[in-house]
């Protein structure tokens, strides 16, 4: 039953408190499933980006052989920030992850920009 069913039942005087409770529970469950699916998609997408960036970072470090280099230190710091924020999202539950999503995207974008600049 959907929202329209509830409205029709209300109009006909056939809705009980139990009906409303059931419908509300079903809507809540559907919303929760949707949020979890979106989180899972975001985590998978971000994990793939992070993996590629980690690989690029290792290649850059191997190429320069100078871990004391300012660029390497800057990229390491950006990678740690991105990893930390990403781990927060993975641990979050419900809709809380959406509040953290922007910070993760920003941190990963900064790391990606730094890696791309170092490649040049």
Task: Describe what you observe in this structure.
By secondary structure, the chain is an all-alpha fold. It has one domain. It is 87% helix and 0% strand. The chain is built from 4 helices and no strands. Helix 2 (17-64) packs antiparallel against helix 3 (70-91), helix 2 runs parallel beside helix 4 and helix 3 (70-91) runs antiparallel to helix 4 (96-119). The protein is rod-shaped and about 75 Å long. The termini are far apart. The model has no long low-confidence stretch (mean pLDDT 82).
Question: How would you describe this structure in keywords?
Answer:
4 helices, 120 residues, mainly alpha, rod-shaped
Task: Give a short summary of the structure.
The protein is mainly α. The chain has helices spanning 3-12, 17-64, 70-91, 96-119.
Distance between the termini: 58 Å
User: Which structural class fits the helix and strand makeup?
Assistant: mainly alpha
Q: Please mark out the parts with pLDDT under 50 across 5 or more consecutive residues, or reply none.
A: none
Summed over residues and divided by their number, the pLDDT gives a mean of 82
Number of strands: 0
The tally of helices reads 4
Assembly classification: single chain
How large, in whole angstroms, is the Cα Rg? 23 Å
- Name the shape in a single word: rod-shaped
Overall structural domain count: 1
> How would you spell out the order of helices and strands?
HHHH
Beta-strand share of residues = under 5%
Major β-sheet annotation = none
Percent helix range: over 70%
């Amino acid at each position: 039953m959907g929202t329209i069913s509830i409205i029709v039942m209300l109009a006909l005087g056939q809705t009980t408190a139990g009906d409303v409770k059931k419908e509300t529970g079903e809507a809540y469950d559907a919303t929760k499933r949707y949020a979890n699916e979106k989180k899972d998609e975001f985590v998978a997408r971000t994990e793939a980006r992070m993996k590629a960036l980690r690989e690029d970072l290792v290649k850059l470090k191997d190429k320069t052989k100078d871990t004391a280099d300012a660029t390497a230190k800057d990229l390491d710091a950006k990678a740690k920030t991105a990893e930390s924020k990403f781990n927060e999202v993975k641990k979050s539950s419900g809709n809380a992850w959406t509040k953290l999503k922007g910070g993760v995207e920003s941190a990963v974008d900064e790391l990606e920009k730094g890696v791309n600049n170092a490649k040049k």
